[in-house]
Amino acid sequence: MTAERRPLRILAVASGKGGVGKSTLSANLAIALHRLGFKVGLVDADIYGPSQARLMGSEDQKPVARDKKLSPVSGVMGIPMLSMAHLVEPGKALAWRGPMVSGALGQLIDADWGDTEWLVVDLPPGTGDIQLSMVQKHKPAGAVIVSTPQDLALIDATRAVSLFAQAGVPMVGLVENMSGYACPHCGEISDPFGQGGAEAAAQDLAMPFLGRIPLAIDIRRRSDAGDPPAAGEGPHADAFRAIAQKVAD
Ligand code: ADP
Which of 18, 47, 122, 181 is the most buried (most CB within 10 A)? Predict the structure, then answer.
């Protein structure tokens, strides 16, 4: 992937199951790509647990519609973003049928993204209506899969991989999140769940391994506070930047 100006390209961030850090990775990846000089936008398509407004510190903003298109709100570092949470009332989304879900996704993707080059799309976990709509209607330029080292998450991740593969969406690569525990006192990484599972799985699936992010209290704290670590300095920011660099290469 190059920095030359092209129409908006979609980078889908997916996982086989919830709670593996897909939203955390999406926000930090968008910020890291922005800091590398790309014009980045962020879509929170996770209808079941939209969290990007909190992660990106934009909870108090509301998008407006101009000429029947939504105008994104502004997240951390001025990154334009839109969330399913802007379109649905909390708790109501689960009753939506496929066409409504797919229509809502269309409103987010076809919003007024201006000169945005890369649209990072945080998908819901699994392989449901939104993922299908994403690959069939919106043709992502690539997909990043997030997994934890545990086997179950990896097995689920391979299902997500096959959904994109069947639709001909190129695999950008796999990220192992919560990979080892970073001690908040000394920074030393220990491996309560083992490590390297995702790297081995990436090899099996013949896709690039993009890197690992440790389980670190600082990542959760800063993310909850709407100030993701990729926006600051330090080892976590470096790790997200290295992943963004591989995505951009
Ligand atoms: P998903 O989008 O896959 O459901 P989230 O990104 O919402 O997962 O993460 C689930 C929870 O785990 C959140 O509270 C988040 O702050 C936390 N989390 C995610 N990645 C890490 C990490 N590397 N270290 C510590 N906490 C993390």
Answer: 122
